[in-house]
Amino acid sequence: MNSKLYSAKTFHEYAFNNFSLEVMANEYLKCYQEVLEGKTLNKKKPLIKNKGLVVLNKFKA
Question: Which residues contact 31 (CB under 8 A, 6 or more apart)?
Fold first, then answer.
């Protein structure tokens, strides 16, 4: 990794602004609210990927 191309401060600010406890909790709450309203979170049925193989999700909501 070329340290001249990356800034630790920039990475820290990005992580703090996008993955802080408050941000993550609010994003989860948005998803939960959509589910409670009967909306679908994914346009396509989620898939489980295992060692390069794609397996249909066997769990039903």
Answer: 41
1 and 11 Cβ atoms separated by less than 8 Å: no
Residue 17, pLDDT score? 92
1 assigned to some structural domain: no
CA distance 48 to 37: 25
Verdict on whether the full-model pTM lies above 0.85? no
Domain presence at residue 13: yes
Q: How far apart are the C-alpha atoms of 40 and 32, rounded to whole Å?
A: 11
∠ CA 11-48-43, nearest 5°, is 80
Beta bridge partners, 34, equal none
| Closest residue by Cα to residue 44 from 56, 52, 32 | 56
Residue 30 maps to a domain: yes
